[in-house]
């Protein structure tokens, strides 16, 4: 099991961005080498070399002690019951509307951060 804490943390926002950009984080020494390597590949700031989901799923450390779920044989299903469950008129259904958050790119996010100036870039 791995601890749950932020890999990048700094009270100063500018320093935090630098740590993320440089992938400057510490991995506890008691982590296995497989766990360390996987974490480093996940937190790679370069999207071209960062590990993909399919590669994570094939990683030896990720697969360690993994047992795929086994499903019981198909039970006898009464199709009339299935039809009745899905043929409701919909009068009791409730729909929820949520406003989507504003879409921001990285430049907009950084430039909107307090105390951070892009003038030096």
UniProtKB/TrEMBL annotation:
<dbReference type="GO" id="GO:0005524">
    <property type="term" value="F:ATP binding"/>
</dbReference>
<keyword id="KW-0808">Transferase</keyword>
<feature type="domain" description="NAF">
    <location>
        <begin position="99"/>
        <end position="121"/>
    </location>
</feature>
<dbReference type="Pfam" id="PF03822">
    <property type="entry name" value="NAF"/>
</dbReference>
<protein>
    <recommendedName>
        <fullName>non-specific serine/threonine protein kinase</fullName>
        <ecNumber>2.7.11.1</ecNumber>
    </recommendedName>
</protein>
<dbReference type="InterPro" id="IPR011009">
    <property type="entry name" value="Kinase-like_dom_sf"/>
</dbReference>
<keyword id="KW-0723">Serine/threonine-protein kinase</keyword>
<dbReference type="InterPro" id="IPR004041">
    <property type="entry name" value="NAF_dom"/>
</dbReference>
<keyword id="KW-0067">ATP-binding</keyword>
<dbReference type="InterPro" id="IPR018451">
    <property type="entry name" value="NAF/FISL_domain"/>
</dbReference>
<keyword id="KW-0547">Nucleotide-binding</keyword>
<dbReference type="GO" id="GO:0004674">
    <property type="term" value="F:protein serine/threonine kinase activity"/>
</dbReference>
<keyword id="KW-0418">Kinase</keyword>
<dbReference type="GO" id="GO:0007165">
    <property type="term" value="P:signal transduction"/>
</dbReference>
